[in-house]
Design brief:
Helix content is 66%, strand content 0%. It is mainly α and 111 residues long. The relative contact order is 0.10.
């Protein structure tokens, strides 16, 4: 079973939902969800994953990461909070991070 499949099954079990109930709520057939839970890749599309996240009350981005629709590099610009960071090379990013760390450390707040 894949990490994503295990996660889907755990979330469904945590909510006490049957495959039929998930189908009723999301339109995803029992067989497709069962195959996804058992590790078949590419069974669910992003819209379906979003429906499951809403039904299960969990964040959708980690689900997209597990399903392979996103990887961490896709999130870099959004995680940093700065625009155009994708235009910087690794050395430039390190220099900026070093400056941030210096200012935080000066304040006594470096973790």
């Amino acid at each position: 079973m894949s990490e994503f499949g295990s996660y889907l099954k755990t979330q469904r079990d945590n909510k006490g939902l049957s495959l039929a109930k998930v189908h009723e709520s999301t339109g995803i057939t029992n067989s497709r969800l069962s195959r996804a839970e058992n590790g078949a890749d590419g069974i669910l599309n992003p819209a379906e994953i979003k429906k499951l996240a809403a039904l299960y009350g969990v964040a959708v981005v980690p689900m997209y990461l597990m399903a392979g629709y996103l990887d961490y590099s896709d999130l870099e610009e959004y995680r940093s909070g700065f625009k155009n960071t994708d235009l910087l090379d690794a050395d430039e990013k390190k220099h900026i991070q070093d400056q941030i760390d210096f200012h935080i450390k000066k304040k006594g707040q470096l973790q």
